[in-house]
Amino acid sequence: MKNKIYALMLLSGIATHVCATENGLDSFALGAEGIAAGALPPPGVYLLNYYQNYHASEFKDGPDNFHVDVNAFIPRLVWMTPQQIAGGQLGFYAAQPLVNLRLNAMGASDSNSGLGDLVMGTMLGWHKGNHHSIAGLEGVFATGDYDNANPQRPVIANLGKNYHTIRPVLAYSYLQPQGWEFSTKLSYSFNTENDDTNYQSGDYFAGDYAIGYQLNDQVKLALEGYVFKQTTDDDVNGVSIGNKGQALAFGPAIQYKQDNWSLEAKFLKETEVEHRPEGHSTTLKMVWAF
């Protein structure tokens, strides 16, 4: 009975990889951060542009004949103020994904393009020598395109999740000016219920990591990746159905930087996956300081 319920819920649609534990996906941008993830910049306005392609042709513990391909462009505007609270520099940010999604599952298919769910947050950053840290709180709001499945459309490529997420975030970086780096960004996500499906996605832990070495003033090489671990069961109509997802990913990355901009590229392959798609992603991240 549990597997039957899960299959029915899967066919109610699918959210993007970069924008739910419902449908085996989530709203944490897995693998988006890496190099210098815990180091906030000086006061000013910054534009971060992310491009991510995610491809998976298998859904672990899920439906057969599965294929998903996601292309997402995510501009993120960051405002670092001169204000300090508890010795930390205060900042704000907002990100709006633009997504192209193609989905096939159990003999049905769909595609969609448009806006995903809006992300907004605030953060504090501290610096002490080579040590840098961040504490933040962000919300993911159900603003993206969403439609519930029906007999005429058993699979729907939804760009939004149709529920909200609140997420505390911690990040840390150890940065040697010329040498080694260790960075990580950790979070824990609390999800509201999808009112259209009565599906309550479980809470989950997620984090990005990077171990890098500065070759010269412009170039840094790194091993990057992410971990995802769901800590509570999914519920349908208040009944627990399990489906705790997990994943581990790793791969090479390179960063090139100049005075007021930087470009980071990475390729990450997933392994140890349960109750989620298993695939790989290619990510480009460009930071521009105004």
From TrEMBL:
UniProt keyword terms in alphabetical order: Signal
Pfam families reported in the protein's UniProt record: Phenol_MetA_deg
Signal peptide bounds: 1-20
Entry keyword Signal: yes
Full protein name: Phenol degradation protein meta
